[in-house]
Amino acid sequence: MSTQPPVATSRLWRSVNHMIISGMHLTLLLTARRTYRGVDRIPGDGGLLVVSNHVSLFDAFALAHAVRLSGRNPLGMGKIELFRIPVLGKWFAKIGHVSVDRAAATPAVALEPAAEALRQGKVLCMYPEGTLNTTPEAGLIAGRTGIARLALASGVPVVPVGQWGPQVVLTPEGKVAALRAPRLFGWFRANRRPRRPQCQLLVGEPITADELRAVAGAGEPDLRAVTDYVMSRIGALVAEVSGLPEAATLDGGTPLITYKKVAEPA
């Protein structure tokens, strides 16, 4: 049985949170067919950093749903300005989302509230790519080193996740498959596009803190090496759920990480 911090401090905010989560689940049911694998790999206790590739705004729904199926309460991080918005900001704070002050003196200071939340046993979900990947067929965008800094500072396991299919449910241009205009004799077309596309999500084995420290090396930690290692683990999962080839390319000069398995650190 999992033990974790309470979602909210009052019945009112717990009810609001429940309604929002129910709405997200209903949206998933109506717009996508889902296949989740490896959910049992998500540890039932302690702080966790769940990291995934980012192919659509819709994939946040699937990621949160999968984490909740494991019995954990997924939370996110947002810039501090969001927490100052009336009602919305209060809801964010009440259910435990973590604010990040991008004007902080150093990245370590900016991420300290998130690191403390992880030490307290919360589950934070992050997209290391830092932005929506509009060309996921080419590979992963090189991750931002904040993920390494946060993982090393908190000492919690990192759970990699690979997703594929949400970019069909909701395209980067904002087109929703379920709302597409009907096509004449669409059911009989060879290239028929379903209104509820398949979303694949695969959870990998947790990356332990010791494993990350081994990658970081002695002395000043190599944040880039740790970040690339985590991204490569995500890439291996994406390769499995998407069936994409291992070759990676450059997209407009942006470095991309190959979808392939990587050697375990010595």
Would you give an account of this structure?
This protein has 266 residues and is an alpha/beta fold. It has a domain at 30-75 and 121-257: Glycerol-3-phosphate (1)-acyltransferase (3-Layer(aba) Sandwich). Helix content is 35%, strand content 15%. It has 8 helices and 10 strands. The two termini are 33 Å apart.
In short:
Helices cover 35% and strands 15% of the residues. It is α/β, with parallel strands linked by helices and 266 residues long.
Record keyword descriptors for this entry.
266 residues; alpha/beta; Glycerol-3-phosphate (1)-acyltransferase; 6-stranded mixed β-sheet; two-stranded parallel sheet; 15% strand; disordered N terminus; disordered C terminus
Q: Main beta sheet, described? A: 6 strands, mixed
In the CATH hierarchy, the architecture of the domain at 30-75 and 121-257 is 3-Layer(aba) Sandwich
How many β strands by DSSP? 10
Distance between the termini: 33 Å
Order of helices and strands: HEEHEEHEHEEHEHEHHE
